[in-house]
């Protein structure tokens, strides 16, 4: 006898979705495989690296540690939902671009969602606070210097308002 399936409804990036999943389907797998939102990356599958970080009701959560059925009734935001398609980049995306906050890009979606939530509650972080804020996500490439600079730059861009973030020069599907 096969595993029991569950019909779930998820609100992801402001869009309602329906999926039929086994009870043990991880949210990260549901987002990637069932909904086709592949911006959420899965690294360690143990909640350690942070690559799978998404926002659940505006708060960062490791989607590899959460079951998809447990996400029903919550508002989810993935990296794809940080900026409107065809619109300006989110300040964190723009700051990562300006400050060269990524190299291979694998960890980037988790950093972007984490930092976006962090800046909602801490709009003017110091360098030490920015470093502490990103310490829970792992990057094997950058050494964090440019990521911390991107946090500080994103805070500046947010304070300056939407006019400070230029229209994207790259198509939405190629954004970090």
From TrEMBL:
The keyword Iron applies. PROSITE patterns: 2FE2S_FER_1, 2FE2S_FER_2. InterPro entries: 2Fe-2S-bd (IPR002888), 2Fe-2S-bd_dom_sf (IPR036884), 2Fe-2S_ferredoxin-like_sf (IPR036010), 2Fe-2S_ferredoxin-type (IPR001041), 2Fe2S_fd_BS (IPR006058), Beta-grasp_dom_sf (IPR012675), Diverse_Oxidoreductases (IPR051452). GO terms for molecular function: 2 iron, 2 sulfur cluster binding; metal ion binding; oxidoreductase activity. Keywords: 2Fe-2S, Iron, Iron-sulfur, Metal-binding, Oxidoreductase. It holds the Pfam family Fer2_2. Pathway: Alkaloid degradation; nicotine degradation. Residues 6-82 form the 2Fe-2S ferredoxin-type domain. Transmembrane segments: none annotated. This is Carbon-monoxide dehydrogenase small subunit. It comes from Murinocardiopsis flavida. The lineage of its organism: Bacteria, Bacillati, Actinomycetota, Actinomycetes, Streptosporangiales.
